[in-house]
Amino acid sequence: MVNEFPQVLTIAGSDSDGSAGMQADLHTFFIRKTYGMSVLVAAVAGNSYGIHAVETLPLSFISKQFDILASDFHIRASKTGMLSDADLIHTVTDAYQTYDFGPLVVDPVITTKHGAQLLEDRAFQALKTKLLPLAEVATPNFFEAQLLTGITIETEEEQRLAAQAIQTLGAKNVIVKGWHHLAAQSEVADYVLLADGTDFWLRHQYFETTHINGTGDTLSATIAAELAKGTDVATAIHIAHDVTTAAIAHEIAVGHKFGPINHWAAENI
């Protein structure tokens, strides 16, 4: 029958080197055996050395992509990536509330992996008040959780408190990803708080590598793909953790500096 195959949507920018953004999401949808679609919001000219130019698409064209997809397909889950300004966030949230594109996974791209803030204040406030309340699952990194909550995270208890605070902003299920920047550390601890109040920790080995581009995209995209297949949230999060860890653990030789993770290594999970 038409549209029986699980379809999942990424709302994100295109990274020309394929390591992150929309490309990482589509790689992930493919290995999770779902059909990936996209609403393109921006285009990035970048390589393993860095980002060199960014262009945001016209808002009317972004809205049109939502309209056209809704007229033909049965999208069962969606995820967001980098949404760079307030008007773009409002356009996306308006469209998402207009059409039924399934549960939404919000990867709140506010900072880099090293803590540098990417969004100006108006966009940050729009993400916090308009986008997060739509999230079935929110996946902030360590720095983003601190910015969203005002909590300085130095202990696992503070990581728990940050997740609880993000839940009060409207996100149903929250993953606060742990610190993973110290060469001397042996593990990374991610905290998960579910909508029903149950919680658990996901712990994995720390890998000292420069090939980590697309880790956040892959985690959130795997969750979205699993939700599109009807997997429950807790199981989807566990699968996403295993997929992302495997993709980091088996480095792929692409790029001279900051390279992509290896999605092929996670294909059979």
TrEMBL record:
GO terms under biological process:
thiamine biosynthetic process
Hey, which pathway is this one from?
Cofactor biosynthesis; thiamine diphosphate biosynthesis; 4-amino-2-methyl-5-diphosphomethylpyrimidine from 5-amino-1-(5-phospho-D-ribosyl)imidazole: step 3/3; Cofactor biosynthesis; thiamine diphosphate biosynthesis; 4-amino-2-methyl-5-diphosphomethylpyrimidine from 5-amino-1-(5-phospho-D-ribosyl)imidazole: step 2/3
Domain of life, source organism: Bacteria
The record's GO molecular-function terms, alphabetically, read: ATP binding; hydroxymethylpyrimidine kinase activity; phosphomethylpyrimidine kinase activity
Entry GO CC: cytosol
Q: Which UniProt keywords apply?
A: ATP-binding, Kinase, Nucleotide-binding, Thiamine biosynthesis, Transferase
Q: What class of enzyme is it?
A: transferase
Catalytic reactions of this protein: 4-amino-2-methyl-5-(phosphooxymethyl)pyrimidine + ATP = 4-amino-2-methyl-5-(diphosphooxymethyl)pyrimidine + ADP; 4-amino-5-hydroxymethyl-2-methylpyrimidine + ATP = 4-amino-2-methyl-5-(phosphooxymethyl)pyrimidine + ADP + H(+)
Please report the stretch or stretches of sequence annotated as the Pyridoxamine kinase/Phosphomethylpyrimidine kinase domain. Answer: 15-262
Q: Which SUPFAM superfamilies match?
A: Ribokinase-like
Q: Which sequence ranges are marked TM in the entry?
A: none
Q: What is its EC number?
A: 2.7.1.49, 2.7.4.7
| Entry's family note | Belongs to the ThiD family.
Q: What is this protein called?
A: Hydroxymethylpyrimidine/phosphomethylpyrimidine kinase
State the organism named in the record.
Leuconostoc carnosum (strain JB16)
Lineage of this protein's species? Bacteria, Bacillati, Bacillota, Bacilli, Lactobacillales
